[in-house]
Amino acid sequence: MQTTSKLIKSFVEDRTGVIVLSQPDRLNCLSMQVWDAIGSELTDFESDTSLHSLCIRAEGKHFCTGANLVEVKSVQQNAADLNVFLRKGHEVLRRFERSRLITVAQVQGLCLAGGLELMMACDMVIAGESSKFGDQHGQFGLVPGWGGSQRLPRLVGLRRALDLFLSVRWITAAEAADWGLITKAVPDEDLKTEVEQLLSSFSTRSSRGLALMKLLAREGLDGGLDNGLEREIEEGTPVLMSEDVREGIAAFEARRSPMFKA
């Protein structure tokens, strides 16, 4: 099983399904087409009973810096289209969390905004020590749209989540590991080997046992996550359709500081 497109690549390695974000020239940004492609590959991997795990990684210097801003602008003024855009990401990331496969993110370089949201939905995260993590939505008048407002506080606690949301600062891989945002930070040159060893350890274990441990742990923590995700869309949609967001995106593209009216 192997898939290659301009958006992602996928293949099976040992007993692991691998998805590779393959738009390094666009910093591996996420779009409806990318979400659809990831969801399709997840379906194929889940149907293969020989697989124990799923690894998501990326080509180039950086893991993922967020959403495709061209697409964000195209849906920003239509509530129905914007909701479809947001729900697509929710759908795929919830599937990651509910999948019988153990999901592992291999992170290098920048992991920001939507990339952070993708990473947080994975069961384990191994990152190179030079990686940086952050949520820069607030810098440009945006709000998290793919679960960040709900998952980040659950992973690192309210104070640290608000620190990242409000300060829009980036943290190091070492700090992310200390916070519990990622599983482990390793030397950059050892990243590939560390992830391969982790995935190999799953391949010798009971897939049923692994899946049940994941299910029970996540069910215990989920609580009101679905309600929280709904609130994120309901409250976030008007903000994402605002003039502030248009100005924020324009400022980002022009590499200048935004000038908000409010």
Question: How would you write the strand order of the largest sheet?
Answer: 1-2-3-4-5-7-10
Q: What's the overall geometry?
A: globular
CATH class: Alpha Beta
The H-and-E topology, N to C, reads as EEEHEHHEEHEEHHEHEHHHH
Number of alpha- plus pi-helical segments: 11
Mean pLDDT: 93
Written overview of the protein:
This protein is α/β, with parallel strands linked by helices. Helix content is 51%, strand content 16%. It contains eleven helices and ten strands. A seven-stranded mixed sheet has the order 1-2-3-4-5-7-10, with helices on both faces. A hairpin with a 2-residue loop joins strand 2 and strand 3. It starts with a strand and ends in an 8-residue tail after the last helix. The model has no long low-confidence stretch (mean pLDDT 93). It comes from Tropicimonas isoalkanivorans. Keywords: Isomerase. One of its GO terms (molecular function) is isomerase activity. Belongs to the enoyl-CoA hydratase/isomerase family.
